[in-house]
Design a protein that fits this description.
366 residues; alpha/beta; Four Helix Bundle (Hemerythrin (Met), subunit A); Rossmann fold; 7-stranded mixed β-sheet; 4-stranded mixed β-sheet; 40% helix; 17% strand; globular
């Protein structure tokens, strides 16, 4: 993996190391260039791609070069910094006008992960608040804010791990679905942060990862980064989760989230709802780990969360080879909604939220 120098833009990595943690990071910001670890090529190739425009960053988000709600938000923030650098030579009014146009374009990159919207709107508010500044000074402020978003996410992940590890059993299997680790965040991870924290405190848990079709984030990414950290992990097909629960091999489930509604409903990778129902049927606690930035207090319930749908080729082909019958119709929703009544607790950097989630979530913003 690309070695990252210890400069101001590496505060998140420095923070991780200062806490005695090891974790992969999905991005780097160096000399006005954004670098993304191409997660489509993992685990076989560790390739860093460079980006110098907001348009290219938005396309990278769409193309799944980077994924995971917090990581998408951080990436979008730096994409808007690149937009600012590209407009620095404009007069102030034109700078703001064109920059806001690029912000609107960035918001369209992926609809479900609320962190993208949260990060871009945070920079928008900052830009409007400092409208009187020169384009150069405003660009510098936006860059500093993007770095703060990244650093705050890492701090939040470490806090989530601290709060969440107490909920995990001392021994037994812990299942996770998709990838909610360092690759999906600024570093350390949400669901995997909870697991990392539990292991660091001496708990003898066995990590079990669903493969997570169709992009195989569990098989390619979760397994890769845990093994890279020296953490043993067992990979299972998505359909095996219920069997393992039935046999007593899973004692808890912990997943991440792409958006949490005001009532506690959670949008996460497709298949999460199935795992939650299986956990309920087998009396197994089901935990969601996510920063407060993933909570959308303006969306009343999961019914109002937009669900991204992607092309059929992700299902009908595998590694470039066609595997499905010619002519078959395909549905490819990327996320599903897990109702709040299936969730034992939501673990945030502010603490553990328990039902009823409406008041608990309201308290996070009051």
């Amino acid at each position: 993996m690309k070695k990252i120098a210890a400069e101001n833009y590496n505060l998140p990595l420095t923070l991780l190391q200062s806490k005695g943690n090891t974790s992969v990071v999905p991005l780097n910001w160096e000399k006005h260039v954004l670098y993304l670890l191409d997660q489509r090529l993992l685990p076989h190739e560790e390739t860093w791609l460079s980006y110098r425009s907001a348009k290219d960053v938005a396309q990278a988000i769409k193309d799944m070069v980077v994924r995971g709600a917090p990581a998408i938000g951080i990436t979008a923030a730096f994409g808007m910094v690149l937009a600012a650098y590209g407009l620095k030579h404009k007069n102030r009014d034109l700078f703001v006008e064109k920059w806001l146009e690029k912000a609107a374009f960035m918001l369209q990159a992926r609809p479900t992960a609320v962190n993208l919207k949260w990060a871009v709107e945070r920079l928008e508010k900052l830009a409007r608040r400092h409208y009187e500044l020169s384009p150069g000074d405003l660009t510098a402020i936006l860059e500093k804010e993007a770095i703060s978003i990244w650093t705050e996410d890492v701090r939040a992940n470490i806090a989530i791990g601290f709060h969440g590890q107490a909920l995990l059993p001392e021994t037994g299997g812990v299942l996770t679905h998709c990838n909610a680790g360092g690759l999906a965040t600024g570093g350390y991870g949400t669901a995997l942060g909870v697991i990392r924290a539990a292991l660091s405190r001496g708990k003898k848990i066995n990590v079990i990862a669903d493969e997570t079709r169709p992009w195989l984030q569990g098989a390619r990414l979760t397994a890769w980064e845990l093994i890279k950290d020296g953490i043993a992990v067992t990979l299972v097909v998505d359909g095996a989760a219920g069997f393992l629960m039935q046999k007593g091999q899973i004692k808890a489930v912990v997943v991440g989230a792409d958006r949490i509604a005001a009532n506690g409903d959670v949008a996460n990778k497709i298949g999460t709802y199935t795992v939650a129902e299986l956990a309920r049927a087998n009396n197994i606690p089901f935990y969601v780990a996510a920063p407060v930035s993933t909570i959308d207090p303006f969306t009343p319930s999961g019914d109002q969360i937009p669900i991204e749908k992607r092309g059929p080729g992700e299902i009908t082909t595998f590694a470039g080879k066609k595997i499905a019958a010619t002519g078959v119709e395909v549905q490819n929703p990327v996320f599903d909604i897990t109702s709040h009544h299936l969730i034992t607790a939501i673990i945030t950097e502010l603490g553990v939220l328990t039902p009823p989630y409406g008041p608990a979530i309201y308290a996070c913003f009051s």
